[in-house]
Design brief:
four-stranded antiparallel beta sheet; alpha+beta; globular; four-stranded mixed beta sheet; 17% strand; disordered C terminus; disordered N terminus
């Protein structure tokens, strides 16, 4: 038999299977997030997505730098808060050019720039916590708080919950970018796209609150505030998408005053615009936290604007 044929047969026999080449775990290749206890509502404007076919895993590459450099301002704000001054667009058009194919509305790449479909924008000027409550770098965000709990905690410092539109502007900036760091989804920039861990349903749904809390904290994948240095908005606000969901005041007040923004660590949208409106003011869960806002121009904690039942922002 010719030598070239023998060499060809040897190479074929020693070629590893695709899973070995790519590092895939066959048992995980078809894994999907099975926990639907906190499904997000379809909210926020996203145009004409293109669904991406399942890709072959690629070697990790260094993450790109944020597309915008945060400009932090603290004047006129209480300690630990940042000043947000900008123009809010009620009708932002963000066109998704590549959508993941797992059905979770995770857009991998948006067309740049976004555009405003409103005739006018609304000027805003306010202060917002740099980190998720308790607003301390290196500390895990507090979770298992209801909207009522969050509003009371903010009021105890003379602050208030952010309105939905304030929260969105602080996340996306004047450019209305879909992610706080830009237009391309990056799971290394923020704490997102993790698979939820299985948990004891009996413990969580039982009457023993201490046991339920302990079990939910056991499966939490939240990270300390500031652990992802590139998860920063154009205003310098940290961890606005992913890590833990954040309570805000609904712009419509329907069906509840409460609304959740930003998403948590799971494989969900985790963008600036979308909101989850299905949970009332008493709902609490292991991936829900919050941060506070305050009126700009005061350094005494923002007491002039403190209110637990903030009015709905005008549309």
């Amino acid at each position: 038999m010719p030598v070239c044929v023998l060499l060809g047969l040897w190479a074929w026999a020693h070629t590893p299977p695709r899973a070995a080449l790519t590092g895939e775990n066959p048992r995980e290749a078809g894994h999907h997030h099975r926990h639907r206890h906190h499904r997000e509502d379809r909210d926020g404007t996203t145009e004409a997505p293109t669904v991406r076919e399942a890709p072959s895993p690629a070697p990790e590459a260094p993450s790109p730098a944020p597309e915008t450099s945060p400009h932090e301002r603290t004047e006129g704000c209480p300690a630990g808060m940042l000043r947000v001054t900008g123009a809010y667009c009620d009708d932002a058009h963000q066109r998704c050019e590549e959508m993941d194919d797992d059905g979770r509305e995770r857009c991998l790449r948006f067309r740049k720039p976004a555009r405003c479909g409103s005739r006018h924008t609304r000027p805003m000027d306010f202060c917002i916590d740099r980190y998720e409550w308790p607003n301390r770098e290196g500390v895990l965000p507090q979770v298992l708080s209801s909207w009522n709990d969050a509003a009371a905690a903010c009021a105890s410092l003379g602050r208030r919950l952010c309105t939905e539109d304030e929260w969105t502007l602080a996340c996306e900036g004047d450019a209305m970018q879909p992610y706080p760091y830009g237009y391309v989804r990056d799971e290394t920039a923020c704490n997102i796209d993790r698979h939820n861990l299985p948990y004891d349903h009996g413990a969580v749904s039982g009457d023993d609150r201490a046991r339920a809390d302990a079990e939910m904290m056991r499966v939490s994948q939240a990270r300390p505030s500031g652990a992802f240095p590139r998860c920063v908005s154009p205003y310098g606000v940290r961890d606005m998408t992913g890590n833990v969901d954040e309570w805000a005041v609904s712009r419509t007040g329907e069906p509840f005053r409460s609304v959740l923004k930003g998403g948590y660590w799971g494989r969900i949208r985790a963008r600036c615009r979308p909101a989850t409106r299905r949970h009332d003011e008493g709902f609490r869960y292991y991936q829900i936290g919050f941060r506070c806002c305050a009126e700009a121009g005061r350094t005494d904690g923002g007491r002039a604007g403190a209110t637990v039942t903030a009015s709905v922002a005008p549309r």
